[in-house]
Design a protein that fits this description.
259 residues, alpha+beta, CNF1/YfiH-like putative cysteine hydrolases, six-stranded mixed sheet, four-stranded mixed sheet
Length: 259
């Protein structure tokens, strides 16, 4: 009945989590599959069913908590489900069992975090703006405020657009190199005036620089794998009128240690 494939990371073993794609849902047309985007043009009843299926696949019985994502570096600490007005932010953390923290993506990098000993989890939406704006750093700091320790935190980066699919212009590359000249290593040559950007590797570096040593990068390209994943850039290149969103989820079971 709820046949939703779940991609899991070795670094997060023992924590309810999963990176979901477009398979296993009930949407049709350009949103076909497990589209969970409330901001898409998909039918709201269908999206609600997809979100319920996704939550059940990862943490049955949990309350799904998502944000109004705005490509910021901001993180919210969650103690209970939000009302109809979701906060505008791009990461969330909790130490409360029964909440499924959800991050929606369609090429941006979903990042899940856990300190199992402290009973603290987090999730971040790291597009290029949020990544360079420090969204992963904000998430780690918020987890520490709940009792986590960065030397115990494990992280995983789920499906996102890969370097081979992510062409950017000179101005984009210069923005990163001005922030840190060492960021040049995340750009490979492309056609004149353009580069191929490795978002996943950049996010790994940001997390590692913050002192987290257990990091899994799944290396799954949302743009290239149409069967499994939605992609904003692929839809844009095709001139399609809309696109679906996939979700990454993490949460604590009722038996979780809250420190």
């Amino acid at each position: 009945m709820n046949d939703v494939p779940v991609i899991r990371a070795r670094t997060l073993v023992g924590v309810a989590h999963g990176f979901l794609g477009r398979e296993g849902g009930v949407s049709t047309g350009i949103h076909a599959g497990l589209n969970v985007g409330t901001g898409s043009d998909d039918d709201t009843v269908v999206v609600a069913e997809n979100r319920a299926r996704a939550t059940t696949a990862v943490l049955p019985g949990a309350k799904l908590v998502t944000l109004y994502q705005v490509h910021s570096g901001d993180c919210i600490t969650v103690t209970a489900p939000f009302d109809a007005d979701r906060p505008r932010a791009d990461a969330l953390v909790t130490d409360r069992p029964g909440l499924a923290l959800g991050i929606l993506t369609a090429d941006c990098a979903p990042v899940l975090f856990a300190d199992v000993e402290a009973g603290v989890v987090g999730a971040a939406h790291a597009g290029w703006k949020g990544a360079i704006g420090g969204v992963t750093d904000s998430t780690i700091l918020a987890m520490e405020s709940l009792g986590a320790r960065r030397d115990r935190i494990a992280a995983a980066i789920g499906p996102c657009i890969a370097r081979a699919s992510y062409e950017v212009d000179d101005a984009f590359a210069q923005r990163f190199e001005q922030d840190d000249p060492a960021n040049e290593r995340f750009f490979a040559p492309a056609r004149a005036g353009h580069h191929q950007f490795d978002l996943e590797a950049y996010v790994v570096q940001r997390i590692a620089s913050a002192g987290v040593t257990r990091i899994a990068a799944l290396g799954l390209d949302t743009y290239a794998d149409e069967t499994r994943f939605f992609s904003f850039r692929r839809a844009t290149h095709r001139g399609e009128p809309g696109y679906g969103r996939q979700i990454a989820l993490i949460g604590l079971g009722a038996e979780a240690n809250r420190g």
